[in-house]
Amino acid sequence: MGKLENKIVVITGGTTGIGLASARLFAAEGARVTVTGSNPKTLDAARNELRGVATVVASDAGSADDIEKLARSFACVDVLYLNAGVAKFGPIATLDLAAFDDSFRINVRGPWLAIKHFGPIMRRGGAIVLTTSVNDELGMPGSSVYAASKAATRSLVRVAASELAEAGVRVNAVSPGPIETAFYGKLGMAPDAVQGFAKTLLGRIPLRRFGTPAEVARAALFLACDDSSFMTGEEIVLDGGMTRV
C-alpha cells in the first residue's frame, strides 16, 4: 500500500518542475491527484504527461475567484500542496511595482486564500505543504521581492500550523535552494546573465550541483504523509548545504 493510498491531493503549480514531479510521485503512492496551472502551454503539456496519472485544472493560483471555485469543487481534501510561485529578480532601484504586486499576489496572497478556503474541508490527519525558498533567510542581491514574499510565506506556515492544529491538520514547508527546473529561464534575465547567475550559485553549494525536482518531491511526500505525523510549522531545507555549512 502506498503512503498516500486513496488520499485526495491538490497541487497548485503542478504542471511543471517540482509540482509535476510531485504529482507523479504522489500518484505512484496511491493518491488521487489534481494539479493546477494557468499557462495554456504548460497545461496542455501536463494533460499529455499526466494522462491517467492526475487531473489537470486551469486555475490561477493568485486569483481569489479561481481559488474559491477550486475549493468548492471538492467535498474534502487530504493533502494540499501549495507549490505555485513566481520569481522577479532585479535591484530594488530598478524593479517596478508590477513585479512586487505580482510576486505577492501569487506567492503570499494565493497561499493565504488557499488555506482560507481549503482549511475547512481538510480532513483530520491531513497535511498542507507550501514551497518556500532558501531566499527567505538570505540577503541575496537582486532578490528583494522574491525573498520578502517567501519570508512572508514562511511566516504563514507557522501561523496556519497553529490555527489548524486543533482540527488535526499539519502545515509545513519545503524550502528548495537551486533546483534544475525551467525556473531560471523565467527570471526575465538575458541567457548569458542566467548562466552567470547559475554559475555563481553553483560555487556556493557544497555538494557542487543543483537539486532535482524529484528530490524536492520526495521531501514534500514526507511532509504530506504520516511519516511526518508529529511535525508541524516546520520547514525542510533542500539546498545541498548552501545555507547550512
Write the layout of secondary structure elements.
Blueprint: E1 8-12, H1 17-28, E2 32-37, H2 40-49, E3 54-58, H3 64-72, E4 77-82, H4 97-118, E5 122-131, H5 144-164, E6 170-176, H6 191-203, H7 213-224, E7 235-238
Parallel strand pairs: 1-2, 1-4, 2-3, 4-5, 5-6, 6-7
Helix pairs in contact: 1-7, 3-4, 4-5
- The CATH superfamily name is NAD(P)-binding Rossmann-like Domain
Question: For the record, what CATH class applies?
Answer: Alpha Beta
Annotation, overall tally of beta strands: 7
What is the annotated CATH architecture?
Answer: 3-Layer(aba) Sandwich
Distance between the termini: 37 Å
Element pattern in H and E = EHEHEHEHEHEHHE
Mean pLDDT level: 94
* Share of residues in strands: 15-25%
What's the story with the biggest beta sheet? 7 strands, parallel
Count of separate DSSP helical elements: 7
Helical content (DSSP H or I, runs of 4+):
40-55%
Can you list the strand order of the major beta sheet? 3-2-1-4-5-6-7
Multimerization state = single chain
Estimated radius of gyration:
17 Å
CATH topology: Rossmann fold
Unreliably modeled segments: none
